[in-house]
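Lecture 7, part 2: worked example. A protein chain together with pyridoxal-5'-phosphate.
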Amino acid sequence: MTQTVHTRARAEIDLAALRANVRALCARTPGAQLMAVVKADGYGHGALPCARAAIEAGAAWVGTATPHEALALRAAGIGGRMLCWLWTPGGPWREAVEADIDVSVSGMWALEEVIEGARAAGRVARIQLKADTGLGRNGCQPADWPALVQAALAAPEVRVTGLWSHFACADEPGHPSIAAQLALFRELVAYAEKEGVEPEVRHIANSPATLTLPETHFDLVRTGIAMYGISPAPEVGAPGDFGLRPVMTLAASVALSKQVPAGHGVSYGHHYVTPKETTLALVPLGYADGIPRHASGRGPVLVGGRVRTVAGRVAMDQFVVDLDGDTVEEGADAILFGPGDRGEPSAEDWAEAAGTIAYEIVTRIGSRVPRVYLNELDENSDS
Ligand SMILES: *Cc1c(COP(=O)(O)O)cnc(C)c1O
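Predicted complex, written out as structure tokens:
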């Protein structure tokens, strides 16, 4: 079902596509549970509706970066298992424990704080120990792992529910770090289990590993970008290769269409000058809405039945496309990216135009762009 909404711009979020993507990912990972990663407001798609739809489609876990993101979802009524992993001193540990959120612990400082939080909450905290198996970002160094495991086992205030890690290069098929990280992860898990940890879940796979490396699935896969129907990287494949469909369509209403003479400069700096008499269309989206300024002169947009290119600079609120003499009416759709059904470009196309990754393209869409949810009711559900 589609609805016509006349607004300056909109990001349509197709929840039926998201559910179908979750089902496709679950089918690909038969032995593992699925965590719907909805950090950063669901990669720009809206954390709450996406978490709900993912759970309807079979996601057993919801994952966020910050505890505040997780607490907001709990407050909005999202139940089930939930993990958040990006902590800083001060918590909110107690609130997370009270909300039955699994908390990631990467170091001794965090273990000490979560123990205090559990005491304050008057209940046992569910913690997941994170190992740095080579990413060099968050996670406990292998040399410090035994001490962290022992300290967690010795604390009655916490129960270790998970052992986990994160890949550095899973989106580069064949990268030697993948096998090295996997081997080290197995070793660190084996150590913890030998010492008495009985984890509910062991997990290391993000979207690219979920799609291409079945040996990394363990008990749980943490999928973000694939759930939103976007390929982690062109090298991994196209979304359709995995039965995935893009969830977000970004569109705007043409604000002005007009004829201009040859030699007319377009937008700040006059980096585009019309080569001949032509028509221009004004698209009311700019870098304040998350359209990358780096895509000036390059970003693709479907307007008037053809894919055009951003003419000149992307400004804060608007950019222009050269219609090459075609005419469109004000109010006509300019589609920046979507699933491609109408011939529109993809988020991956914009990533290439801006020299970035498609993750950033969807995540950076600003709060001034209303999200319009399509297919909120799950037609596959029995209820
Ligand atoms: C963001 C994130 C994920 C999801 O990554 P995708 O590539 O989007 O699937 C998984 N795990 C951690 C720790 C993350 O930060």
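DSSP finds eleven helices and 19 strands in the chain. Residues 37, 39, 65, 85, 166, 206-207, 222-226, 232 surround pyridoxal-5'-phosphate (CB under 6 Å). Keep this in mind for problem set question 3.
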